[in-house]
Amino acid sequence: QKQAEKAVHQKKEQSKTKCRKARRRHINLVAEFNRRQGKNIWLETHIWHAKRFHMVKKWGYCLGDSPTEKSYRACYRAMTKHCLLQDLSYYCCLELTGKENELLEQLRRICSIDTGLTFEEAYCLSGRFEGSLNLYRADRYPEDMLGPVTFIWKPRDGSEKRQLWIWMHPALKQDILRELKAIFQCSEPEETYTPEPVTTSIQEEKQEGVVLSLGEKRKKEDKEGEKAVPVKKIIGDGTRDPFQSYSWTSHTAGILISDRTMEILRYRLIGPLSHSVLTQTLKAASPQTV
């Protein structure tokens, strides 16, 4: 009798859950994608990795650690003969905007020519190549190293202002950001960033009910009534509180520091066919005329 009661209780609980067909609808999949990023941020390739990799939670992200396959031959074969792609979007990106001489004057304080190239290297300053170096606390070289970074300048467009993107590991971001704000004397903005509220599954069900009450088919509504379909969102990033500011301004030097983490995606291609993959995937945009 107890087993029968237990079976009836389980049946009632199962009846409350949606069937697989309902769960697999696009509107429900996107709502579930948004809901499950509450604690650890997902990369845009998360679902692909989650089906094929053991996932780990590090630095505020959910990342693929090792493949579920027992052999690493497929990855090795891709690296040596084909092309292997890695998603490095969890790396943090800080954008510096301002006059070139003002940027270089202060950036000299956190690097040294004794360690190799600097931000002033000619072929990097042109924006054609990416550079890498070690950063130190201001005027403290060779002590107090912050860590290694990579950087790339936006090519010159005729104006005085330049843009510089600095990429770093998420474990180093807060220290490097604090040092950059200090050397450029950036002030904290008065208004803080307020993220958009994530649509919950209950709200999505209400939207779904409104759509069905109009008497139109779901497929037609999904195509034409785009407002009824939620948008897949990457919520913030794992290194910043959602209510923390994401840009800082230096009123003395006119420098703007922006946190572009998870706004600019980053992928690494390894293998002899990497260039051919890029040429077949990407197409050069036609020059725009104003």
Describe what you observe in this structure.
This is POP1 protein. The chain is an alpha+beta fold. Among the domains are: 23-69, no CATH class; 92-189 and 245-261, Alpha-Beta Plaits (2-Layer Sandwich). 32% of the residues lie in helices and 22% in strands. The protein is built from eleven helices and eleven strands. The chain has helices spanning 2-16, 20-23, 26-35, 46-50, 73-81, 100-107, 122-125, 173-183, 201-213, 218-224, 274-281, and strands spanning 41-42, 53-58, 61-67, 84-87, 92-99, 131-136, 145-153, 161-168, 247-250, 255-259, 267-270. A six-stranded antiparallel beta sheet has the order 6-7-8-5-10-9. Strands 1-3-2 form a three-stranded mixed beta sheet. Strands 4-11 form a two-stranded antiparallel ribbon. Helix 3 (26-35) runs antiparallel to helix 9 (201-213). The longest helix has 15 residues, at 2-16. The chain is globular, with a radius of gyration of 24 Å. The protein starts with a helix and ends in a 9-residue tail after the last helix.
